[in-house]
Amino acid sequence: MSNRSGIDAALVDLLGEDNQILFMAVKLEFDTETLRLWNGKDNLTIQEGGSNTTYIGAGTLLQISGIEEQLDMSAAGVTISLAGMDEAVLNLALNEEYQNRPISILLGMLSGGTDISAGTMTIFKGRMQSMSIDDNPEGSLITLNAESRLVDLNRPSNLRYTNESQQFISSGDTCFSRVGLLQDKEILWGRAGTSGSGLGGSVGGRNDNVNKRIQRR
Asked: CA-to-CA distance for 194 and 188, rounded, in angstroms?
């Protein structure tokens, strides 16, 4: 476990202790803003990319299905349920384009029984796929299904060895800029050329001399 990438050094040290207090956190990256939630009561500060970010406490209103990691690297999805959140969260579910937007699920530990994060690691990373909203008098229940990024391994990239595909990957790269010129390029190899020069021309010259000797005989 200590060799797995993406684990905070402080979290690795806590794994060896007898008692740990675990928590789950979810990051939903919509186009207009990023929604961060965790299964505690108060707001929680988690370090991301060297800076502190705030995760809203959703408590027991946040439910996450079992997360599986297969030995054969096959993709397994996950379901997240969120109930009774405020109107701002509901507006994101109703109005935002959510399909194929990134989603991350973190597993972390609290420091010394406080609401301070001692470290986290990413246990799921993928994309949002489908969302359903059940609105009733007791509140709204939002259910979100997401697929793992491992699904991309089964999808064709639709990229070719062309300049257009290379520009999509790295704009300004001229690696394949002359590939188009090779499509109709005539390459002379082992036969006479129109200019009479090069390998093709020299081969053709020798054949002409042989034909002349045969005719003289």
From this structure: 10
Q: Based on the fold, state whether residues 126 and 203 are members of the same structural domain.
A: no
Query: Within this chain, do residues 102 and 198 fall inside the same structural domain, yes or no?
Result: no
| pTM score of the predicted model | 0.62
Gyration radius of the chain over CA positions: 31
Same domain (yes/no): 66, 130: yes
Measured CA to CA, the distance from residue 25 to residue 38 in angstroms comes to 4
Which residues of the chain fall short of a pLDDT of 50? 1-3, 197-203, 210, 212, 214
Element (H, E) at 19: none
Are the C-beta atoms of residues 78 and 64 closer than 8 Å to each other? yes
Task: Give the number of domains in the chain.
Answer: 2
Are the C-beta atoms of 38 and 56 separated by less than 8 Å?
Answer: yes
Distant-in-sequence, close-in-space partners of 122: CB < 8 Å, separation ≥ 6: 6, 104, 105, 106
